[in-house]
Amino acid sequence: MTTGDDDLLDVYADALIECVAEGRARCLRGPDAEPLPAAAPIFVFTAYDPAGEERDQALNDAAERELEHELRIAGVTFWPATGRSPDTSWSEPGVAVAHFDRAEACVYGTRFGQLAVYELTDDEVRVVRCVDGGVVRSRPRRIPKSG
Questions:
Q1: Is the pLDDT of residue 123 over 90?
Q2: Rounded mean pLDDT of 42-66?
Q3: Is the residue at 31 inside a domain?
Q4: How far apart are the first and last CA of the chain?
Q5: Which of 135, 137, 140, 100 is nearest to 123 (CA)?
Q6: Helix (H) or strand (E) run with residue 30 in it
Q7: How far apart are CA 142 and CA 146, in angstroms?
Q8: The predicted structure's pLDDT at residue 1
Q9: Where are the beta strands (DSSP E) in the chain?
Q10: Alpha helix (H) residue ranges in 19-144
Q11: Is residue 49 left, alpha or beta, with left meaning phi > 0 and alpha meaning psi from -120 to 50?
């Protein structure tokens, strides 16, 4: 991994994460973190901006549709999700996936060019490197309110 990748993993670890489950937005990581929508772990990943490199919106949208299509065909339980920086300068959509294991999540992450995926437990959010499934960052799911 490069220093740039390492910096990106720090950004990922500090992200706020939400998903839409049961007809409403749910905070999965942040000051108002709620219980997970299914048994832990829940994995969150995206098809946007492979390797952390910005690309055209149309390409990102098409890749995300392809990811969701593949999950649907495989019969995977998932919900639309969004990860964003605490200062809202960065945001990207993805999916929150239930009934997966780390290896499966990393396969999808790798397939869609991601450096890492999120693994959420009842208490933590872990940044998992796709190439080897190693946990490279870990933070509490519930964080203190700022201000």
A1: yes
A2: 94
A3: no
A4: 35
A5: 140
A6: none
A7: 12
A8: 47
A9: 16-21, 24-29, 42-45, 78-84, 91-97, 116-120, 124-129, 135-140
A10: 57-73, 102-111
A11: left
- What backbone phi and psi angles, to 5 degrees, belong to 97? -120, 135
Structural contact between residues 125 and 43, judged by C-beta atoms closer than 8 angstroms: no
Q: What predicted TM-score, i.e. pTM, was given to this entire model?
A: 0.93
Does 32 fall in a domain? no
9-26: pLDDT as tens digits: 888 899 999 999 999 999
CA atoms within 13 A on the CB side of 115: 19
> Domain of 109?
3-21+39-140
Q: Which of 139, 142, 112, 116 minimizes the C-alpha distance to 129?
A: 116
Give dist(CA 19, CA 143) in Å, integer.
Answer: 17
- Average pLDDT on 18-44 reads 95
In this structure, of 67-71, 134-138, 140-144, the range with the lowest mean pLDDT score is 140-144
Give the count of domains, the chain.
1
Residue 117, in any domain of the structure: yes
What mean pLDDT is reported for the chain? 92
Token pair of 28 as six digits: 């999965």
